[in-house]
Amino acid sequence: MSETREIPCRGARMSALRSVLQFRDYFEHMGSWVDKAKAEAGAPIFFAHLGMPSIVVTDVVAAANIFAAPKDVVDRIGQPGFGPIELRERLTGGILPAVVSHGEKNASTRRFLDAMLEDARGRFDEMLTKSLEDIAAEWVASGGVTLNAVSGVSGKMTGRWLLDIDLDAAEVSEWPGLTFGIKTSSRLVNFVLGTLNRPKKSAVEMSDRLVETFRKAPRLDHICRIGKDAGLDEEETLRQMAFFTLFNTGALGRVAGGALAQLKLTPEWATAIRNELGDKQLVPSAMNEFPILDKVFTECCRLFGRPRAYYRRALKDFDLPCGDGHIYRVLEGDTLLLSMRSIHHDERMFTDGHSFNPKRFDDNPKLLHYVFIFGPHDKPYRCAPADLGMADVFFKYVLGRLVQGYTWDISPPPEIHADNVDDVAPEDVSLVNFRPRS
Ligand code: HEM
What are phi and psi of 437, to 5 degrees? Predict the structure, then answer.
């Protein structure tokens, strides 16, 4: 390893407004924006103003080192949002969800979520099976579904599984985007953006209606008792359950949408999965015994995973080894932005990184360590249902059952690119002619 280097571009100055506009440009062209900035900086890690002063990390070795760093060196920022993206109190009820909290606040919310999930384990197989069959029947009856609505399926299924409520998948897929506002270091810019980006009245009404559905949920009283044992009052329990079901499940839904489009572009993998599953009666909790489905899952999470960016704060100065063989000096107080579209496409680790190739994990199993499917490989801050063995099988059941039992066309032809905000373009891509396999 070579000598420690300074992080390039540090000290560059920019107004809050230009910084926000640059963040929007980055967010809307995550692949090409980073490639250009990285080339200009001449390093896989560099300073940039992206809504806030950020150290942009594009290197998978650096990301692994940051995720593995002790929590007294690097930790979550612990604010209600993701970097400059702020969660709107009006829609979240002002809670600090597990996915953005840190320290004791995260630990107490996780105690509740883990207990609630463990309590509902007995319902997992039956409710996921029933809800997916109902969803597929709806798609057969309507002839198809937009890929956007597909991303709400995991929220709809989770509503049935945990609360016995029936949510609209399209509304679930819309909710996360409504919760996002922008926050900068300038009050004036925040005021202007806050006014310009105010959520539409109809959006707030939809969100309120959804929260009322949770408030009337048949299993809420039972879940509130679990919340009480973990130190949460009823309103916080309700709001944590709403965020959990409407927001967190989106990680699965987005990967599922990308996977369904990808399998139309590489149908040989759909055939391989179908042959592997045959006509077996699939059981959600037993979906970890299919190696082909497993590597398709991992490759889909590498390409379509969420979040697209992780934020961390350096609590001390430290040296960060990167995949280019150099060590970079991170300073106390630095905001680290792990840009996952670049990190999971890092050519030094993933040959032809933009391409879908599940076989890469057969050729080099070491790569599995560098796909952060559920975030860091260790606690804390790893995906809650993943820690309990429920998240990967949930995904594999959805994809496996749809590929095994149904067939569809896709229209218009999907374009998958690292610059697409939602992975697959154009926005109105839909599964059409959705029907049971004969
Ligand atoms: C394929 C399925 C899924 C994937 C790939 C996935 C991925 C992730 C990732 C990457 C994180 C870390 C996010 C961060 O630190 O910013 C996370 C956290 C989380 N996920 Fe998942 N997730 C999946 C399914 C689910 C489902 C179905 C639920 C709820 C039913 C869920 C609930 C959560 C929660 C509550 C957290 C926050 C945990 C914490 O910070 O303590 N996830 N997930």
Answer: -75, 135
